[in-house]
Design a protein that fits this description.
two-stranded antiparallel sheet, single chain, binds iron/sulfur cluster, 7-stranded mixed beta sheet, alpha/beta, TIM Barrel
């Protein structure tokens, strides 16, 4: 497969996705970046370096045809929380209708504080990929870096709880097939004040 230059912003359906980092605190077994070789529906998402705020905004371009803007590439956007704030502020000024973050939920451990109030300044929606109600399964399936193994699951649950207090929409996602007790998972998510969203496992490379 011939590699195209990295995409900093890419369309999927009627949303615009922003690819601001390739750095990740986990190596999730279900992550399509490994099987799809960092490609996503015709876009190369492997960043050689982290793009600047201006580069991201230039790549985003005209926002008028998008129903929402999503921070989501093949990395964890909260590593770049300060840049996210700047980007979001500029996007809102350019008329962005809705801003969402897709995250693995480790932002509080990454930034060493509760970042939900910061995110609430610019997010309309957050989607946290938790996948299981069982801390051991979380470690086994998500393969977090050593510094996140012990407190990761607990911290993600705390992050969800804090987001649900201050962000208009907080969803918690699970890739189908990982959680063996869906009722327990739903109960956990509801106890954190969020809503469950199941999503299918993607495997075959799609180039649509
Ligand atoms: S956090 Fe996202 S990008 Fe990182 S390994 Fe997991 S699924 Fe892939």
């Amino acid at each position: 497969m011939k590699l195209t230059p990295p995409a900093l912003a890419y369309r999927y359906k009627d949303a615009l996705y922003l690819n601001i980092t390739s750095k990740c605190p986990t190596a999730c077994e279900f992550c399509i970046k490994f099987s799809w070789d960092y490609q996503y529906r015709g876009n190369n998402l492997l960043l050689k370096k982290e793009p600047g705020v201006r580069e991201i905004l230039e790549a985003a371009g005209d926002l008028s045809t998008y129903s929402e803007i999503v921070f989501c590439g093949y990395g964890e956007s909260t590593y770049r929380l300060e840049e996210m704030k700047e980007i979001a502020r500029a996007l809102k000024a350019k008329g962005a209708k809705k801003i969402r973050l897709n995250t693995i939920g480790l932002g509080n451990l990454i930034c060493k504080r509760n970042i939900a109030p910061d995110l609430a300044l610019f997010l309309d929606s957050v989607s946290v990929s938790l996948n299981t109600s069982d801390p051991e399964t979380w470690v086994k399936v998500l393969h977090p870096l050593p510094e996140y193994r012990e407190k990761g699951f607990e911290s993600v649950c705390g992050f969800i709880r804090e987001c649900a207090k201050v962000i208009p929409e907080t969803y918690v996602t699970a890739v189908e097939g990982i959680e063996k007790d869906p009722k327990k998972f739903s109960a956990l998510v509801e106890s954190l004040g969020a809503k469950v969203r199941l999503r299918p496992y993607l495997d075959d490379y799609e180039n649509s």
